[in-house]
Amino acid sequence: MADELDTALDRAAELLRSARSIAVLTGAGVSAESGVPTFRASDGLWEGHRIEDVATPFAFQRNPRLVWQFYNARRANVGTVKPNPGHHALAKMEGRWGENFTLVTQNVDGLHRAAGSRNVLEVHGSLYRTRCTGCDEIADRGLEPLGELPTCPACSALLRPDIVWFHEPLPEDVWEAAALAAHRADVLLVVGTSAVVYPAANLIPIARGVGGAKPEPGKVIEFNLTPTEASELADVGVYGPSGQTLPRLCERLGL
Ligand code: BV8
Ligand code: ZN
């Protein structure tokens, strides 16, 4: 098995050496080794909740107290964790490619920025931010516990997490930038995502230039524990914990 992983890492490094522009799509798996639970655990529950009960606008309308309980618990968890070597490896790669390196994350835990990544597109929002249901004010509130039903200091309306729930559109400008980065990418790294949530998962066919949208199809390299929905679109599959495989990739790149 080890030599299969070595071969995949060699191939991945070879593709990256000649890459001018790189995009990355990360999901919960890149934060797993930091102690942040992933979404699709075996029981289909998410921290003991059904997604419909805590991550949709209807859930918030129906029971904002439960939704805030869920998000305050995740904010508290993220306050106790730190980036793992996988996050740091991606920050190192950005140092090498500069503004030709765009990191698109579905994660809301802020760990990429904490590891030093700068060009980060949070397509599903962030646990650090709240949005006002009255005046739309968006504020970074750190990870301090927010009360059971936090209200807006400006207009006293109920605050909500600045998170994209299911059935909600992604922030237009962030999505446009992510799709452009994938379109321009010579190589897309797909790290720690089951690639089942849309439109984020569309970045993979966009990077490949499906439908002849690109003169040269981009190469896709998957970093995961196991093959996923994205695997058939991947040129290379690097299977192992990303906290170990990404640093080994950086070693091969001399970073
Ligand atoms: C939209 C914020 C339309 C919440 C999230 C049917 C009904 C309703 C909707 C739909 C439907 N069919 C399709 C849809 C659309 C829906 C969707 O895609 N649903 C899926 C589930 C079928 N999408 C939406 O609703 C989107 N909005 O479509 O709006 C619209 C358009 C215009 C105008 C109005 C409306 C919104 C999607 C965003 C939802 N919000 N997050 C929160 O986080 O609190 S999504 C949620 O899932 C997280 O963001 C998470 O990142 C994301 C994806 O999950 P993953 O990150 O991939 O995590 P997962 O656990 O699944 O996988 C972990 C992977 O890591 C695994 O592969 C594992 O093997 C690997 N791994 C584990 N450990 C490691 C590892 N890999 C490496 N190393 C390790 N150590
Ligand atoms: Zn307000």
List ligands, each type once: ligand BV8, zinc ion
**Named CATH topology of the largest domain:** Rossmann fold
| SSE sequence, one letter per element | HEHHHHHEHEEEEHEHEEH
Helix % is 25-40%
User: Reading side by side through the largest sheet, how are the strands ordered?
Assistant: 3-2-1-7-8-9
CATH level-four homologous superfamily name of the largest domain = TPP-binding domain
- The count of domains is 2
CATH architecture assignment of the largest domain: 3-Layer(aba) Sandwich
The value of Rg in angstroms is: 18 Å
What is the helix tally?
Answer: 10
Q: Structural class, please?
A: alpha/beta
Rounded average pLDDT:
95
Extended strand count: 9
**Sheet having the most strands:** 6 strands, parallel
Query: What's the CATH C level of the largest domain?
Result: Alpha Beta
